[in-house]
Amino acid sequence: MNKTIIALSTPPTLSAIAIIRLSGDDALKLVSEVFPLLRNAKPRYMYYGTLDTGSVKDDCMCVYFRAPHSYTGEDVVEINCHGSTKLTREIIEYFISKGAVMAERGEFTRRAFTNGKLDLTACEGVIDLINAQTEEQVRTAYSQMNGALQNKVDDIQRKIKTLIAKIEVSLDYPEEEIEEAAEKETETEIKGILDSLYALKNTYRSGKIMRDGVKVAVIGKPNVGKSRLFNALVGYDRAIVTSVAGTTRDTVNETYEYKGIKFVLTDTAGIRETSDEVEKIGVIRAEKEAETSDVVVKVIEAGEVSDETGCDILVENKIDIRTPRSDRSVRTSALTGEGVEELKEAIYAAATKGISVGESGINNLRHLGLVNEAIKGAETALSSLGNVSLDCVSSDLFGAFRALGKITGAVSSDEIVGEIFSKFCVGK
Question: Whole-angstrom Cα distance, residue 262 to residue 254?
Fold first, then answer.
């Protein structure tokens, strides 16, 4: 029998409503003892009444989800009570005294995974949706939570499984003509599998941008208006702006949303030769930001001679007082706001070049590493054809199949599963 777990599923703070969730074999029995309306409850019906633990009372709404038709796949009861921190603590402590146990981080979702309600990619989609800050993050997380990535992985696995089965048949009937035909057919099918794996790998950049946002570094010499332009992009005075060269000595970070995508903008120290030890550190950090960012915006004063090396976008700033000269630059006045929207569009275009915004796919290093492992297995199988027996080729393909299974959790280790669910809050 599964232990019945309990946790507060809403933030532990004062609020109008709080939700306490129980999951396990005794969930309905425990709540029915203090909320009698649930004794003959219909699943998925909300009941309004008084919950009385003996020490506290509250007018609540409760709903019962019968296994397996619940989030966890077990019997689940959710109590909607008033959001007093004292009240919720008293209710939780009461049920613990009656045999329930406090849920661990992510335990509700882990039980959903264990009971086959969600695969690992869907579980990752749940935590991504909880953490979503932009429209595209919500869309892609919801898509993953509802099986978009799982379906892609399962489709490739089906192709591999079918091919392995064909190879096994040819091994059972080892006539020369059949084996030769099988090798030619196998080569064609492995190439098709590799095409699908390469396509899946190519979704990583898009998925990572949707999940984590775009890192943008604003670089340039001192006093070209980087900090004022940074403030114009984020919409408020985040960075200090003065007429003194070298005011910015450290990196300053802020985010903004554009077309549903999160952009993580970094203002940097002006890059120049300096004897000031503090400013030198700022220059080193600026150069490092440029190396690690997805998009580098280089700011110069309008009319200044500058090449476009080391950047994705060249900005000629201060066009309110100077005349620009480059035909390929984005022209702005951080002081008046002219050109700022054009710059946002240019940053968006540079960040999304060559990708499909909103496409479902792999979006973290765990996914990428396992897809690479699957590619390696399939490539080894392809190169082995004609040089080794088909049973060795089948073994390499099975390695690719297992790697893909680790993405969805069809093949998993306790260590991987534990790492994923450690990122959840207690009530989820």
Answer: 10
Task: Give the integer Cα–Cα distance in Å for 180 and 198.
Answer: 27
Give φ, ψ of 391 to 5 degrees: -70, -30
pTM to 2 decimal places: 0.80
Is residue 320 in some structural domain? yes
- Average pLDDT, 10 consecutive residues per value, the chain (428 residues): 91 94 97 95 96 96 97 97 96 96 94 94 92 88 92 94 82 58 82 95 89 91 89 82 58 88 88 73 82 92 82 93 89 93 95 78 93 96 83 89 92 65 71
Alpha-carbon distance of 407 to 424, in angstroms, equals 18
Number of domains in the chain: 3
- What distance in Å separates the CA atoms of residue 382 and residue 195, rounded to the nearest whole number? 12
Burial class, 406, CB count within 10 angstroms (exposed 0-12 / middle 13-18 / buried 19+) = buried
The length of the chain in residues reads 428
Taking the alpha carbons of 258, 263, 269, 272 in that order, is the dihedral positive or negative?
negative
Task: Assess whether 69 and 152 both reside in one domain.
Answer: no
Structural domain boundaries, residue 327: 213-352
Which among 147, 138, 159 is positioned nearest to 120, based on CA atoms? Answer: 147
Residues 185 and 254 in one domain: no
